[in-house]
Structure formats: structure tokens, C-alpha cells
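Sample A.
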Amino acid sequence: MSNVTHYPNLKDTLENPLFSKSDDSLRAKIKDHLKQTKHKFIVLDDDPTGVQTVHDIFVITDWGKDWIKKGLSDERSVLYILTNTRSYNEEKAQNINREIVQNIVEVTKEMGINFSIISRSDSTLRGHYPLEIDVLQDELLKAANIEISGHLIIPAFFESHRYTLENTHYLGVDGQLVPVSETEFAKDSVFGFNTANLPKWIEEKTKGSVASESALIISLEDIHNGGIDKVYEILLSANNNAPIIVNAKSYYDLDVVSVAILKAIDSGKQFLFRTAASFVKSIAGINDRPYLSADEIVSKGESRNNGGFIVVGSHTKKTTEQINELMKKYPIEQIEINVVKVLNEETRAEELTRVCQLVDNYISSNRDTLVYTSRDVIIAKEIEENLKISQMVSGSLVEVVRSLKIKPKFIIAKGGITSSDVATDGLEIKYAKILGQTIAGVPVWLTGSEAKFKDTPYIVFPGNVGEKESIAQIFENIKSDQKGEI
């Protein structure tokens, strides 16, 4: 990363009185509107971290028609469907999106529900764009004769200091605003990119087929000076699935945009959304709630006498710093999985047997246990090969979870692909309730009756979220609960 002293100051930018507004009535207005219209927002989440701003809603990991119907059968205005497409190649991602849309159209037609689809992806601009938006547009037209006017690009994620200002997407790093293109995330071996300027990012990602000048812009000036009416006017001008870039540095900005979106939908416009997590909270009219207490993130009953389990697959620098801080502060059992061995067919079984035996021994002995992959990143020349490596490594962590014979006191999974695979393949979750967050940007699922361990809090920790001490902070919260029982 280049010298951050040349970047805008985070605090000064966010406190600029020109753009520092709030209006608590907007969220209530959104909620009332959705209650009246019964419009549903169905979020296709490309990894399980997208629920990191919401609570008291449900996520399904199976997009069969029966599960979609179950998920849409209550009064809630939003349903998440975990697709995990960020861990798959383009062909599989495309097939998953098509199948889901076909099933959504059938179910909503039967239930008489009007809906919009949100393609929830990464706040650091990684993922299958424009592929997923293009596929959703195509399939909605084929299956339901829905013509998409435009797709809103909203990567802002305030809980983890990600903001879009003057069409450039920034991360807050050490008190400075750093363009996301100058962070480690832009160097992703599968989804890397060169610019944080969103119109130019669109042009880059579409390989020039969509010119940067063709993007519609909703600026902070539009939001703060023109308000709902100005944003509504911009939205009405969208046609032919035009990209619409939303600048945002606070929930006030998103709430103004959300009210305008609902107004435009009422006028007959149809939109898709490529967003990070903060927008969903706004458009669904979900209010704030306090972070979850220690008691809410620990299993009930006899399992409180067992050790807790933390499984880490993410290789970001942030994650490595976080687990190092945890290991430095607390006497937790540490098991490193040798990635070279699990990628080798001849040594994979032996390495996994070693790890599984240790994990069961430690957890049954009330010893909190950390399992993490060796920190050296193995990178292949081809994107497909890198995806395969990620899947094999994540698959090894899933095998460890599957092997658990005893229910841990708590479960934390660190990393997008890791937490998704652990949820669906390791814990066999089909339907879970989102309880809330344990710290900013870190959601907690409550597993359903079908899961390997039912009614169990499952802490989903994104690879690109948190400060150096964040995992240790959650661990300390859990320990404080134990102290209260003594």
C-alpha cells in the first residue's frame, strides 16, 4: 500500500457538516411502506457474511421451492438465500443464479408476492460482477417478463468503514480513507481489480462493453440537497439495466435512496441491486439493536461444559493479525492444518485424521480450540486452479467440523468461503435465524432443527472485517459469560 498520509482524513470527511445529516423517520417510513405493499426483497448472498447488519430475519441455504416458500411465508420483508457463488467458477455461479430465479418466480407467482432481488456481494468489490447481474436480468425477463430498468451499485458498508465518495470506493485504514484498489483485497487472485473509481471499475469489469460515462450517478449532493425527489428523478431515467452508482457515507444517505427506490418501484420501475451489507438494513427498514450479549452467543445446556471451537480459513493479513492477537492473549489450544499436506492426495487423510482427533480430545476436555490453515498462501497461475485450491482447503475444514462428536460451547468460523462451507456442509444448516451481531459486521446465526447441532449460535466472521483485537474481543465476551456462572 502506498503512503496513506496523502489520503483524506476519515474523521474529518465523515464529520463534514455539509453531509452530516440524520432523520430517524426515514427508516420508519420504509418499514410502513413495506408493510402496506408487502413487497419482498430476496437477497442472493454470495457468502454467508451478508447478514452482518440485520437481525430477526431468516437465511436459507437450500433454494428448492419448498425452502423458498417457507422463507417467504412470514411477514418479514427480506429473505436471504446463501448461494456461496463467490467460491465457484463462472459457469457454476451462473447456473445457481438461474435456478434460484426460476424457483423464486414460480413460488412468488403461487403466493402472489411482488419482489425485487438483491445480489449481495463484497464491500471490497470482489465477486462475479457483472456476471451475476447479467444472469439475473436475463432470467427474470425469460421467466417472468420482468424488464430491469437499472442495477444499483452500493458497496458502502459503514460498520467496517467502507464508504463511496465522489464515485470512488474507500476503506477506512488507520484513520485515513484509502481507495480500495490500493488495499490487499484488490490483489485477490480470482477477483482482483485496478481502480476504485466505480464508473471505471464497471468499465474494467465489463471489459469495456459498458463505458464509464454510461453509468448514472447518485451523488451526495443529490441526496443532501435534492433529497428523495432528486434521487427519484434519477431512478426514473434509468433504462436497459443501466448501472447506477450510489455515493454514501452514512445510513441517512441510504435511507433517502431507499425511500426513492420504493417510490420508483411503485411507479413501475424494476431494479436489481449489487450491494454490500449496509443497504439491506436500510431498504428492509430494519432498526438498530444492541450487540448480542455473551449469553446469546454461547450454546445452552450441557454443551456449556465443553470447549469452544474457532475455525479459520481466511488468509487475509487482517485475519492473520487477529488470530495472532488471540493466541497471544489467551491460553487456547492451537492446531495448524498443513495446507501443503491437505492438497496432496497421499498426505491429506493422515493430516486430517491428526487434526480431527486433537479437536475432539480438546473440546471434550473443556479446552477452547483454534484450528487454522497454515498462513502461506498457495497461488496458481490460473483463476480456475486458485478456486480449486480454495475449495480443497475449505473442504478440509468442513471435514474437521463434520467429525465433531461433541457439541462445542460456541462456534466461530473466520472467512467467507470457510463460514459458508462450514454452515452448509459441516453443520448442515438449511434454515437459520439471524440473531444479530456480536461486534460490528460479525453476524450470529441460530441453527435450525435440521442442523448437525440444533439451536446453536454460529458466529460468522468475514475475512475482511474487524480490527486486530476483534476475535480476542469476542472470545473475551464469551469468557465473561463463563465468569458469571462461577
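Sample B, a different protein:
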Amino acid sequence: MSTAPMPQFPTGFRWGVSTSAHQIEGATAADGRGPSIWDTFAQTPGRIGDGSTAEVTCDHYHRYAEDVALLTALGVSAYRFSIAWPRVQPTGTGTVNPGGLDFYDRLVDELLAAGIDPVATLYHWDLPQPLEDAGGWLQRDTAARFADYAEKAAARLGDRVRLWITLNEPFIHMSLGYGMGEHAPGRTLLFDAFPVAHHQLLGHGLAVAALRSRSTSPVAIANNYSPVRVLGDTDADRAAGAAYEALHNRLFTDPLLGRGYPDLPGFDPDLIHPGDLDTIAAPIDVLGVNYYNPTGVRAAQEGSPLPFDLVPLDGYPRTAFDWPVAPDGLHELLGWLRDTYGDALPPIEITESGCAYDDVPDAGGRVVDPERIAYLDGHLRAVRAALDDGVDVRGYFVWSLLDNWEWAEGFTKRFGLVHVDYATQTRTPKSSYTWLRDVIAASREGSAR
């Protein structure tokens, strides 16, 4: 961690934290909520690392006021949460479930009363199970169902949500959920999962129109990005790097910003119906950037099912997820987005950035996490460097407010600024929470001068 003072950020820079519904809400049988693909996935033996489910997790559904109080004390100006599609439409279609939307009404009003902007993500991977039973995102109809859900959510909340995010990390959902089978719904289609990419993007474009029919608030998407580090100096290595960059970083950005799809082996152009690319490229107000680490790539070994091999990057500290801690990658990524997309690139907000460590309370009950402080310090300085380079970055959201149920890892990975004892639901702010609170306060004080 640098010993230099944290540089100032622009007036109005959005300081926030992020969570997702399935990871923190619990109350999976409350208010008429239907099952999601993650409920089904977690009930399948061997799918979740510790055998747990998200039936209770952080019990945010009942403790949201306590969690908003934590946000208030932290001093953030925005809270990014997700709306659980199965709470709003238990089967993914038809009329809304009023009890489900009532919860988000209460949460949004609590945030506004605290002076915190509600930032709502409509889809953070929790597809209603009946839609998956009908084919899920492999089916074009799911895009239309998503737009209908978006319209219904905006009809109830659109006067108060300050920023809408349609999809969270569609690349990760496609690749791990439908391509590799490591996430719900657990399909192993490899490149046959490309229809999931197109239908998610089509759903995004249709949802943009639906949201704007009911709300005047800005609209965004949150993409996961990873700078590509080619390890090797052969033409095959460089070709592998280009293939991975097209898949991870460009597949969900090129069409979004009006360039159509990059050239990818196995992508069926017959997926694209007349008008689809125009729908997908409907202008957005913000590009959400989720960043965790760069990716090492080299030429695929003989017999590999993919056109590249992923290899560990040496020379960086590692998180409990064994991800490299590389703030320079965030600076590199922001410059790549600016240089690649130019005037087509909307303002950027870092919608997720964070790290998992094995945080344990000490004998006095404190949770001291210097590694997370160093991580945040480095990544905030990377954002400031990108601002100095002329990249239009408007905000930074830490993943995450709370330790939570980390998908296929269950409760084994802790990303929170606040430690959660899952047995007692006791919340304990970590030293990183205090550090960030002071950074936010100092930045506001400096901007006010």
C-alpha cells in the first residue's frame, strides 16, 4: 500500500458498494418468491464447495435497515443491489408478485431516506427456474421475457431508482453457467453456448427500451473485463491472446457499442435476426466495468477444446481466490476501453472491484484486513491515474458490502467490508470499512474546498 496521501477525486464522483440478491437476501420461501436456477444448482450434490445453500445467507431480506445503516455510516453515495427476478415474477412470466416488489419498495425508500442513490441491477444470474426448464438463455424468447420483467420492475420503482443496470457480467454467466458448467444452470456446452451471449444482449437492448418507457433514470450494463497478458512470443501465442480478448472483452462490448460481433469460431450468424444489432446497440448512459484481475494466455496445447490456454500470472500477490492483485490491470483496461471504442464509449463507472481473504475476528472481536486495504488503495489510485489520462470514470463500487454466499464456493470466500457471522448474523465492520470511510470523507472534504 502506498504511504502517499490518496489523491482527490472529482466533485460528484460516485462512491458505492455492491451486492446481489441471491448472495445476501435469504428468505428464499418468503413473499411468494419462486425458485431460481441457483436454488436448483445448490440442491444438487457436489455443486457447491461447502454444500451450503443461500436459503438464509446474510438474511438481508429481514435486516435491510441494519445494512442501510452500515451504508450510511460508511458514507457512500450509492448502493448497487440486484432485484431477484423470481421474487418479481416467480415463473419468469405473467403478472407481478406484489409481495416481492414490496420488499424492493421498502429498500429503495430506506436508501433514499438515508441520502443514498439506489442503483438497481435487474439480472444477477438468478433466472427463474421455469424459464430454464424451457431452455433458459439458449432460447430467444427469454430475451422478451426479460424485457417484460424490466418494464414491470420499472413501473414500480422507476421514479426512485437513480441508475438501472440491465445485466451483470453476461460473459461470466455464459461461460461458467452454460459453457463450463461451474455455475448455474450447470450446462457444459463450450462454444455451443454462444446463443446465450446473443440472447442476453438482445434482452439487454429490449430492456433498455422497456426501462425508458417507465423511468427517466440513466441505464447501464455491467460487463466483466480482464486485460489479456500474452505469455509467449510466437504467432500462435499472439493469436491465442487475440481470441481470448475477443471472447472475454469484445463479445459483449463490440455489439453494445455499434460494431457488431467480433469474429469468433463457432458463432452462428443465423442467431442474428433483422434489427437485432440495432436493438442491442441502443445508446446507454453508463458502461459498468467489473474488474478483478488480468488473465494470462498462451497458445493452446494439442487436444485443447479451446483456442487458447489460460495460465497463472506470476509476480503478483494473490487473494484467497488465488487471483492476482494487479491494480495496473485496471489502469490498463480503462485505457484500452478508451483507445478501442473512442467516442462511442459512454462514461464509465467501476461497478465491481474487490477481493476475498480469509478474514477472522481476533480475540477482541476486531477484523483486521490489511490486504484488502492495500487492494483498495491500489485500485483507487489506478482509477485516479486513468482519470489523469482523460478516461471518463464517474464512480467506484466496492464488491462487496457484506461477506456473503459466494456462488459455487458457498461461504468459503469472504469479499465484504463487513464481516458476517452466518450463525448469529452479527455484522462487524472490518478495518477496510473504516479505511474506506475515511477516504470517502477526505475526498468529499477536498472536493468541497
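Observation for Sample B: The radius of gyration is 21 Å.
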